[in-house]
Amino acid sequence: MNMPETNVVGASLLSLLPGIDAAAREAIQLAVLMAQRVAESDHREGLVQDWFSHYRRQLQFYGWDALTAEQRYRPDPQRRGAVERSLHIVQQVAGERHARSLQASLQALAENGSALWQMQQRSRQMNLFQLLPCAPREDGNLDIVLYHEVGELALFGFDFPVRIDEASRVRAELVRFNPRLFQRTHADKVRQALGRILHEEIIALPI
Prior knowledge:
- The structure is a single chain.
- The chain is of the alpha+beta class.
- The chain is 46% helix and 21% strand.
- A seven-stranded mixed β-sheet has the order 3-6-5-4-2-1-7, with helices on both faces.
- Strand 1 and strand 2 (12-16) form a beta hairpin.
- Helix 1 packs across helix 7 and helix 3 (82-94) packs antiparallel against helix 4.
- The longest helix is centred in the N-terminal third of the chain and has 23 residues, at 22-44.
């Protein structure tokens, strides 16, 4: 892939920098969507209380490894608009490249009514949304910012309504994902388990 891409995957917005091939893109989509569905189902049935921690464990099972503690979000006391805050957090965690990629993806989402509507619906159902800017590494793995915010997504144009002040409602960290390992060990089973919803829950957006 020589051009950036953006995908809506359930309640997540994937921002893919150039250099991520089709197999790696599919691996991210499958892992994110399956982890979301497992976490949501188990949380709804009362099997787990902390949605994010359970979701995070699912991703670890699929080959997403947390990096050092220094690469996690530290609460910033400065008040910001929600989009500006999200971009600032991503830049803090992973740098300018990830933040620029996410900004382009947010703009693409704001301009695509059907994709925005679907992400809003999933966000309302789960009362959360995620932003996942992804960048390729020379070793074939991916560096991904896992940005998770509790609250309903409601994009109007290119801005979120300011909803939250409590830093505990936002989590962000830099993780590393091995897409080739996922394709070898999990992809076929996950693809079969997800079935037809793959075509319903994943939308590619032009940038």
